[in-house]
Amino acid sequence: MDNKTETIKINYSLLMDLRVDYAFKLIFGTGDTLFLISLLNAIFANKKIPRIIKSLTVINPYLEKHSKEDKLSILDIRAQLDDGTTILIEMHLYDLDDLKYKTIRSWARTYGEELKTSEAYTTQPPVICVTFANGSLDEGESKKIHKCCKIMDIDDHTIFSNALELHYIDMKAFVKAVNETGGIGKGETVETMLASWLAIITEKDIEDKSIIENICKEQEEIGMAVSALVRLSEDKVTRQEYLRRQDDIMLHNKRARDYELMKQRAEQEKNRAEQAEAENEMLRKRLAELETK
Fold first, then answer.
1. Cα gap 14→248, rounded to integer Å
2. Which residues contact 190 (CB under 8 A, 6 or more apart)?
3. What are phi and psi of 257, to 5 degrees?
4. 53: which residues sit within 8 A by CB, 6+ positions away?
């Protein structure tokens, strides 16, 4: 199939949103690993990391429980490279408050599980976490689209260890940049393979759909991924599962918003009560002063 000449017919209203983890796993976590390899290579190339993946294996996405009280952690995709390196990939539309710490926890648990008995620590392959988030992970931080974190010396910035590598991708910041500039070749959205993949992943919020169509024509593997997504979106059984998961996410978001609103109201009530108490205390002092005169 030559996607540089063939135009893919896309019903955007029907197309599944790849930010919904169910759809994301269908394209990147099942079947042919071509799309996942392309996406990961684009992420590493975007930070000029000299790592080129040629093959990988998608493995059990569950992290084992360490105790009866410990909740089972579920990842979207867990892959292993030929050299033993483990890559954890997660898609998040909500729960951003503690996301960075959840990611570090997932890394720590996986890194601990990878070491086999009698093996030296120096032989243990690294664990890489890739997190797609629908927003920034830090308040007040400049809206950086792709952040890569490692353990390093705070003085000279030399890498202390390659065992930990965390990639955070802010999809909301990407969409904002694309819609403001009108394309992926301007500003922060420099025309890279990662920008092309992100445009497809965030398609629902990209205003100019010609951007999507041009990417499908110019990037063969992305065109193939979108063709697969179109077919899956038209399958009735698959779509029912997708809509069910989408409803779950919407319900979760509503509960999260309601909880935040409840916390804000409680905080406001507390502040009003404290202010009223302070005013009453001032009034009591004033009355006491008047009584002593």
1. 19
2. 184
3. -65, -45
4. 37, 40, 41, 44, 81
Tell me: pLDDT of 279 over 90.
no
d(CA 46, CA 139): 24
Instruction: Of 152, 212, 147, 211, give the one whose Cα is nearest residue 183.
Output: 211
Residue type, 88: L
Structure tokens, 146? 């792709």
Nearest to 202, CA basis, from 223, 175, 178, 232: 175
Residue 1 confidence (pLDDT) above 50:
no
Helical residues (DSSP H) of 164-219, grouped into ranges: 171-181, 193-201, 210-218
**Residue that has been written with the tokens 């000449």 in this structure:** 5
What's the whole-model pTM score? 0.78
Instruction: Assess contact for 249 and 76: CB atoms under 8 A.
Output: no
Residue 237 near residue 46, CB atoms below 8 Å: no
Q: What is the pLDDT of residues 174-208, one digit of tens each?
A: 999 999 988 887 666 667 899 999 999 999 999 99
